[in-house]
Design a protein that fits this description.
By secondary structure, the protein is an alpha+beta fold. The protein has helices spanning about 5-15, 25-30, 35-45, 75-90, 95-110, 110-125, 135-145, 220, and strands at about 50-55, 60-65, 150-155, 165-175, 180-185, 190-195, 200-205. The chain is flat.
Length: about 240
């Protein structure tokens, strides 16, 4: 768990136990970190203005003011429309499930009359989104390596020739081009940046290898060609 995630989770624990303090050792055990890490987290939250205080004594520990609550997200109507439209486009991507849940949260926070208008727009934007879908295990692996990069082993089927090749790929990003989602990565077979249609990946395996840092960034150096790339020729 990353530090920022632990801070949010720590707040949730303290708010859920607002009637009684929670000891530092108990919090450390809860999050699998040292007591010193918890003490640093508490100081950081206090410095950010969160009303956490210490209760002394044998039954003491960290406590949070009972009336403390996190402020809700406040979208203007235009911002809510933009967020939902963007999430709609992601419905055909490996992040479809996360996008759908996020959209539900945004829609739930809107007044009813605005909700219907925004939902209608979402439907019309979604109709322009890419339709090609990959297998769920492919989507899951891509989501994972974009957050925590690892070298991938792919079996890739050319959408033009049907040729199957085995690749080791260092993932760089995910883009959409002319109705398809493309995993862009450094292909060790071709020793160059290549794009892999997610719906053409027949097999995918994550390795334990962390991709090396390449200088200059190969994605930045190569991205301009994707703007003009169709699939009249196989890019892989």
């Amino acid at each position: 768990m990353r530090r920022s995630e632990r801070h949010h989770a720590l707040l949730d624990v303290l708010r859920a136990n607002a009637e009684r303090p929670v000891s530092v050792p108990r919090l450390a055990a809860r999050f699998g970190v040292s007591t010193r890490t918890i003490e640093r987290d508490v100081r950081a939250l206090q410095e950010a203005g969160v009303p956490i205080y210490a209760e002394p004594g044998r039954r003491g520990g960290c406590a949070i003011r009972r009336d403390y609550s996190l402020p809700p997200l406040a979208f203007t109507p235009q911002e809510a429309t933009a967020v939902v439209a963007g999430l709609s486009v992601m419905m055909g991507s490996p992040f479809a499930g996360d996008s759908r849940r996020a959209m539900d949260k945004v829609l739930a926070a809107l007044p009813p009359e605005r909700r219907e208008m925004v939902r209608d727009l979402a439907g019309r934007v979604a109709s322009m989104a890419p339709e090609g879908r990959a297998a769920e295990n492919v989507d899951a692996a891509i989501r994972d390596v974009l957050v925590r990069p690892r070298v991938l082993e792919l079996e890739y089927v050319s959408h033009l020739s049907g040729e199957r090749t085995q690749r080791h790929v260092e993932p760089l990003g995910l883009i959409t081009v002319r109705g398809a989602w493309i995993l862009v990565g450094w292909c060790r077979l071709r020793e160059a940046v290549r794009g892999f249609r997610t719906d053409c990946i027949a097999r995918i395996e994550k390795t334990d290898e962390i991709p090396p840092q390449r200088t200059p960034d190969p994605l930045d150096a190569d991205l301009s060609r994707w703007e003009f790339l169709g699939f009249e020729r196989d890019s892989s």
